[in-house]
Description:
Layout: E1 2-7, H1 11-24, E2 32-38, E3 42-44, H2 49-54, E4 61-63, E5 72-76, E6 78-83, E7 88-93, E8 97-102, E9 105-108, E10 112-114, E11 123-124, H3 128-143, E12 148-153, H4 157-170, E13 176-182, H5 193-205, E14 208-212, E15 216-220, E16 225-228, E17 233-235, E18 238-241, E19 245-247, E20 254-255, E21 258-260, E22 273-275, E23 280-281, H6 295-314, E24 327-333, E25 339-345, E26 348-353, H7 354-368
Parallel strand pairs: 1-2, 1-9, 2-5, 9-22, 11-18, 12-13, 12-18, 13-14, 21-23
Antiparallel strand pairs: 3-4, 6-7, 7-8, 10-19, 15-16, 16-17, 20-21, 24-25, 25-26
Residues 7-13, 37-40, 44, 46-47, 49, 78-79, 109-112, 125-126, 157-158, 242, 248, 277-278, 293-296, 298 line the site of flavin-adenine dinucleotide (FAD).
Amino acid sequence: MKHIVIVGGGYAGINTLEHLKKQLGNRLGHDIRMTLIDKQPYHLRKVLLFRRISDKDFNLHIPLTSYTGEGISFVQGEVEEISEREQAIVVTRDGLKRENIPYDQLVLAMGSSSRHQEDQGGIPLESSKTADLIRSRIEEGIKAGKSIHIAVVGAGISGVETAAEMGCWLKDSGAVKVTLVNADRRLLSSAPKKVSAHMEEELTKVGVNVIHGVKVCQYDDQAKTLYYSDGTTETVDVCIWTTGLKSNVLSASREKGRIVVDESYHVKGMKNVYSIGDCALVTDAKTGRIDRMTCKEAVLQSGKLSRIMVKDMTGSGKRLVHKSIPVEFYCVSLGQNRALVWMKKGKYSMLIRNRLALFIRKSTWDSASLIKK
Length: 373
Ligand SMILES: Cc1cc2nc3c(=O)[nH]c(=O)nc-3n(C[C@H](O)[C@H](O)[C@H](O)COP(=O)(O)OP(=O)(O)OC[C@H]3O[C@@H](n4cnc5c(N)ncnc54)[C@H](O)[C@@H]3O)c2cc1C
């Protein structure tokens, strides 16, 4: 029986599994089986981490066993290395037991982790645990009846969403100040100026103060001081880092810190090994465009990858290659009841706000995690 192994139950991994399930149909459990491996027992709805700060009961975890079925199993363990000679991966289970799991086809979808380093101080928004820690620090300050200052460092989409969520959540809590620190000259600088301006306007409405063109070097947790790159400092009670991601790469060959794949997601120099999502350096060979580390790109890659894998397995079908999406698309949450969607194809662009944007926001969040209505 052929064995497909998928490492990582993030957006890339679960969507690859789902596409393969549909394509392989009743061959699963008969001549093909699949194993999903993740160090955590759950799929983390990462793009919604900011919501867990404002709502402690918000469930971000979906058990990975809920994505399995006939001929598909889940193994909780951490993949440490790939033994190419044996076509097997080495997995550590319960932190101790090392086990070799052989594969016929292997997908590396280990995603990414926060680029934040411990010695920079503050708290990175990267897991439910860190979201809970941020919440408890904010609550401690509010309970003590002090005025508190929260800094969100890094104004990419996740920084904007986090700052907006904090602003909405805390705007009636009295003396709370929220600052979003943007290293760039304006928000979401790849979008037109009017989109950046609209976003900033929305942030201002919920009490977020945005500062541009400055970086943060360090936060001193004891002294509660934020150190800016221009030499100035500021008193901040809670420092949340949203400064970007670094890929989880194992022992595969890498470039720009990500696993190098060809135009059909085959890992360079490895046989029967594929990689997509945040950990992979996926390039459109025709345009030279490198896919970004986003949920949307990971999900789109998974559909094509599953067809490539089935084609490689059966040896039939036409050659498929990666193409980057011809549409630029941003869906940004601006607090509980506001969102903004901006898309651009060629010279046409569209800005959507209000209820339609909220609907698109919920649909993209749910469909990425395979949540059915
Ligand atoms: C705070 C935050 C907000 C974001 N907001 C947005 C947004 O609004 N829109 C957007 O498009 N993107 C957003 N992103 C980026 C988005 O979350 C990622 O692009 C997406 O999660 C990539 O999916 P993935 O499956 O490649 O990786 P991940 O979601 O990182 O999943 C990787 C999985 O692999 C597992 N794993 C890792 N290493 C191993 C190992 N050695 N062994 C076993 N298992 C392993 C992990 O436990 C994890 O389950 C955000 C990211 C963060 C952190």
